[in-house]
Amino acid sequence: MSDSLRLLPLGGLGEIGKNMMVAEYRDRIVVIDAGLMFPTPEMLGIDLVLPDFEYLRGRAKDIEAIVLTHGHEDHVGALPYLLREIGMPKVIYGGLLTVGMVRSKLDEHKLGGAPLTELPAGEVVSAGPFTIELVHLSHSIPDMRGVVLGTDLGKVFFTGDYKFDQTPVDGRPADVARLARLGSEGLLALCGDSTNADRLGVAPSESSVGPALYDAFSACEGRIIVTSFASNIHRVQQVIDAAVRLDRKVALVGRSMRKNFNIASNLSMANAPEGTLIQPREIEDFPDERVVVISTGSQGEPFSALRRMANNDHRDIELHSGDTVVFSATPVPGNERAVNETIDRIYEIGATVITAKDRPIHASGHGSREEIKMMLNLTRPKYVMPVHGDFQRIRLHAELARSVGIPDENIFRGRNGLPLEIGPDGAAFGEEVGGGVIFVDGVELADPNDATLRDRRTISDDGIVIVVATIAAENGEIVADPELIARGTISLGEDPDLLDDLADTVEESLEKAAGSGVRDLDLIQGDLHDAVAGFIHRKLRARPLVVPVVVEV
Ligand SMILES: [Zn+2]
Ligand SMILES: [Zn+2]
User: Fold this and answer.
1) Where do the DSSP E strands lie in 403-534?
2) pLDDT tens for residues 197-251?
3) C-alpha span between 504 and 531 (Å, rounded)
4) 72 CA to centre of ligand 2 in angstroms
5) Within 13 A of 131's CA, how many CA atoms are on the CB side?
6) Contact, 52 vs 434, CB < 8 A?
7) Prediction pTM value
């Protein structure tokens, strides 16, 4: 179907994170979001996980625009890597705060010349065979925008992340009127957020969190340390407001907390009364009961400010009994363990912890089931492709679509790399293009099938054994006793008999090679590897990383 509109998800389906969608029509492309995901504990030494950009390689000239729904990392975090890999597009659109946050991020990546452009909600621009319009929605970061992509086949609406907050902190609820008009104009397809498709009812309003924070703070006698997402500007503002009412000073701690507050206050989206903010190094100058600290680290991130405090390793803040740490966030799936560890260390120090289980001090930024149904009923799409969720939530979202009357055959439960092709006569999944991942290891991009990661896993499970052997160049005979170095391999280091037997195995392997006239070092090392690995597996049931080093003299 060459006349069809292709919607190709490169990330975000069957997982929580790295949201990215490629919309293609008449060989022209609009990319919606380019998010990242944080690695799971098995991805040893991997810093970030990105969508696989392969499909876009060599096609920078076909990209009419990149459109960003909002400034969260799972929507914009892969952008610097994408731009470096495929080159600069003509334009990158987003809301005002999104553009501000992304500009600062790209500057850090030395990509200062990116064509970031604020597109006000409701303004329609054309981009090749597409029109682009942003629709204001509410979420846990200001300036959240859904994306209406128009073609002569019809319009597709990408919700991005949303909830229907009737009393948002900035007084700007979702543009329900525009959503309803999309429905009455006849919407071709909807790609909607599935995050909370398992939660009953309606998400609590962000503005319900402020009074709960005030109540929690009122009961504290000592210092208060609040942690939340640095990008949740309205939450940070509500913490500041509660602190001011209780005559406490506020210190912002953690790089992203300070950076995002600065960006938001420069855009007049956040403010603190004169004299409220103090520097982290001034905290000790004020009595405990006069201080609120707002810190990064709500997800237990290893190098975050809160994690450092919990480990007694923060430059400016030493936690002590009498302090109360308030978690105004819940762990993103996958982060529960790191968060629990952080909480327990805080208790070990003697401080107290308040979480969203104790008091209503957090509200999700994603709509629950009734809100997902409301989005479907307002926009009344012909086709639905749930996105932004694991397979369970995508299924639940599909069931919600059916429950509001969308026929089964018009609901598409997709996965990364599988394009939905919508033509004048219908819609169907096309041919899979591969929706893998790219790892970021330090600053390098790496293939997940790379041997490095497998080696790291092997070493972490069973350790490493290095065998150094010296042979004569002319006949392959052993000229010195082989040297064995074992690290992290249970009992190999301590058992002299085992080490002797292993040395014998090494010698046998080398003698066999010499006897049969094998002189190729790679072959000799390969045989040596197999002999040593086989021996260790037979004796210890372990599979350490075996590194043979054969030196010719
Ligand atoms: Zn979000
Ligand atoms: Zn998201």
Assistant:
1) 420-423, 426-429, 437-441, 444-446, 464-471, 478-487
2) 999 999 999 999 999 999 999 999 999 999 999 999 999 999 999 999 999 999 9
3) 11
4) 7
5) 12
6) yes
7) 0.85
CA 380, distance to chain mean position in Å, is 31
Listed residue (61, 59, 36, 56) closest to 46, CA to CA: 36
Question: What is the overall mean pLDDT for the chain?
Answer: 93
Contact call for residues 190 and 156 (beta carbons, < 8 A): yes
Q: Are 62 and 27 in contact (CB under 8 A)?
A: yes
Out of 136, 234, 366, 397, the active site residue is 366
136 is catalytic: no
Angle at 397 between CA 393 and CA 402, to 5 degrees: 145
Distances (CA, A) of 73 to 105, 268, 308, 382: 10, 22, 22, 30
Cα 343 to averaged position of ligand 2 atoms, centre (Å):
25
Category of 356 on φ-ψ map: left (φ > 0), alpha (ψ -120 to 50) or beta: alpha
Element (H, E) at 7: strand 5-11
Q: How far is the CA of 66 from the centre of ligand 1 (A)?
A: 17
How far apart are the CA of 75 and the centre of ligand 2, in A? Answer: 6
Residue 369: CB partners within 8 Å, gap ≥ 6? Answer: 196, 197, 198, 199, 200, 201, 396, 400
- H or E element at residue 509: helix 496-515
Residue 314 annotated among the catalytic residues of the structure:
no
Distance, C-alpha 518 to centroid of its chain: 50
The closest alpha carbon to 132, from 116, 144, 121, belongs to 121
> Cα–Cα distances in Å, from 147 out to 93, 95, 120, 130, 156?
10, 11, 12, 12, 8
